[in-house]
Specification:
214 residues, mainly alpha, three-stranded antiparallel sheet, 7 helices, globular
């Protein structure tokens, strides 16, 4: 079940139409700056894949992906969020391992990026690719804007059926994991609860047991 709750970092557009007019591109950078304090507080800038597997959404990345998969049977947005997390999972693994293992994870990341492109089209998200001359080895970057939050990755090989991205980078380094967790918890705030807790929280007030008087 997808549940929307109020956003604390400012008003966001619907996840189905988060596109910004060309004259408001800088809103993405402003939005990123607004998230910086929250991301820094959770130490996402220094979180490696091992810590993420335990702490992400309070249940770890594996359980989060399993629960998103169960939601995705009837919710395209859950499928999209699961893919975002899988891409970042591959990205963090690529940074952890050397040599051929690193290359294999980067290739996996590119394949996952290609698989998310049709969902970007279906959800009518603002996304695209652009070159990056600042990186010493990887010169291409994939961008996608979700509810006015910008997520981006460097990638190798080629991506197809993807437009050029004309927006501005929000300037936040090492923030992708925090942004993805934020998006997941905004739409699925009960994702980290156990089954009995989830049932208890979703019961209507009239059906909850009345405590016995002492």
């Amino acid at each position: 079940m997808k549940i929307n709750i109020p956003i604390q970092l400012g008003a966001l557009e619907s996840s189905n139409s988060p596109q910004l007019p060309p004259n408001e591109k800088n809103q993405i950078k402003t939005r990123g700056e607004a998230m910086q304090k929250s991301i820094d507080h959770q130490n996402f800038r220094i979180m490696d894949i091992d810590k993420a597997r335990k702490d992400f959404c309070s249940i770890g990345t594996r359980k989060t992906k399993v629960r998103l998969k169960s939601y995705s049977r009837s919710d395209l947005y859950a499928t999209f969020l699961k893919l975002l997390l899988e891409i970042e999972d591959s990205n963090l693994n690529a940074q952890k391992y050397p040599g051929y293992t690193k290359l294999a994870y980067y290739q996996e990341k590119t394949e996952l990026l290609q698989s998310i492109i049709p969902l970007c089209h279906r959800l009518k998200l603002r996304f695209g690719i652009r070159s990056n001359s600042n990186h010493k080895s990887v010169k291409k970057v994939f961008f996608v804007e979700v509810e006015n939050i910008q997520i981006c990755w460097h990638y190798i090989d080629e991506l197809y059926n993807v437009p050029l991205y004309e927006g501005e980078w929000d300037g936040l380094q090492n923030s992708t994991l925090g942004k993805i967790e934020y998006l997941i918890l905004q739409s699925y705030p009960f994702i980290n609860l156990k089954k009995w807790q989830l049932t208890k929280n979703l019961l209507p007030p009239s059906s909850k047991p009345i405590p016995k008087p002492k």
